[in-house]
Structures are given as C-alpha cells and as structure tokens.
Design brief:
By secondary structure, this protein is of the alpha/beta class. It has a single domain, classed as 2-Layer Sandwich (Beta Polymerase, domain 2). The chain is built from 6 helices and 8 strands. The chain has a 5-stranded mixed beta sheet with strand order 2-3-6-5-4. Strands 1-7-8 form a 3-stranded mixed beta sheet. Helix 5 (117-127) packs antiparallel against helix 6 (130-153). It is globular. Mean pLDDT is 85; it is low at 1-7.
Length: 160
C-alpha cells in the first residue's frame, strides 16, 4: 500500500467526502471503479457515482443501513446503495483480486484507500465497456509517463 500526496484533492468530490465522513473502518473498504482515476488526475474530472468494496464490520454496517435489493451487473453480487443510488457498496469485485488483495494493494489518497491503477486496469479489461476502453488507454498513458519520469530521474519502480 502506498500513500500518495501529490494528487488532486479528492475530498473536493461530494461523494468521496460523504464516504470520508462516515464512521467506517478505513481498513475495511477500498474505492474501486473510475474514482481511482480521478484521484490521480486522470479523466474528465466528473464523478458520477462511487463504487466501494467493503468487508468485515463495514460491510455489515452498510448492509444494515443502506438500500438493498440491487445486484452487480457483472458479478451478480449484492449491492447496497446510498446517496440516491450514487454510492454503491459490494462485498466483492470482479477481476483477478480478492477483496483482501485489493485492500492490501490499495493506495491511500486523502486518507482513503483507492484501488491501485494496475488493479483498475485488470477489472476495466474484464468489463470491456466503451468507457472502460477509454479509461484503459488513459491509465496506460499515465503509467507510461510516470515510469518515464521515474526512469529519467533515477527513481526505481515500486515493488509489485
């Protein structure tokens, strides 16, 4: 897990701020979907919704207090929503990583865990929607530019 402090102020986004203000255990949820891109300054700067994977007491808390009855479009897993359906919590996510792996590999940005960009690429490749294909291209460009900068100033790449 990496703590990143050189990103746009992700807490300026209403839905992220809403999540940050909740009394959830921050070691038990990770923000997934497109929000990790925005946390790195990638994309159009608009946050339409917020996808969160949660476990443990946080999952039990959201499951007890949120709007239930939805299921994930790809996984079919139960989804609990808040904020008029704009914040979605699930206990699982699609892609090659377990919830624990997503949490362990997450980056802390603005005090919250965001899925790592390599993990974002993995699940966007699985989803394969038009917006995901655009996001894949943007993330790959971003990661390539970061690697070019690191190499140019002699900073080793982070361990996988």
């Amino acid at each position: 897990m990496k703590d990143t402090d050189t990103t746009p102020n992700i807490l300026e986004y209403e839905l992220v701020r809403w999540l940050a203000e909740r009394p959830f255990n921050r070691d038990e949820f990770v923000i997934v979907g497109s929000a990790p891109l925005l946390a790195h300054g990638i994309g159009d700067g608009v946050l339409r919704d917020l996808d969160v994977v949660a476990c443990g007491s946080t999952w039990r808390q959201v499951h007890a207090t949120g709007v239930r009855g939805m299921t994930g479009t790809i996984t079919g897993a139960p989804v609990v929503s808040f904020c008029g359906g704009r914040v979605h919590f699930s206990e699982t996510w699609f892609g090659p990583r377990s919830t624990r792996e997503l949490l362990d590999r997450a980056e802390i940005i603005g005090g919250l865990r965001f899925a790592s960009l390599p993990d974002v690429l993995d699940y966007k490749r699985v989803a394969g929607r038009d917006k995901d294909l655009r996001h894949i291209e943007a993330v790959e460009r971003f990661l390539k530019s970061v690697e070019t900068i690191r190499h140019g100033i002699g900073i080793p790449a982070p361990a996988a």
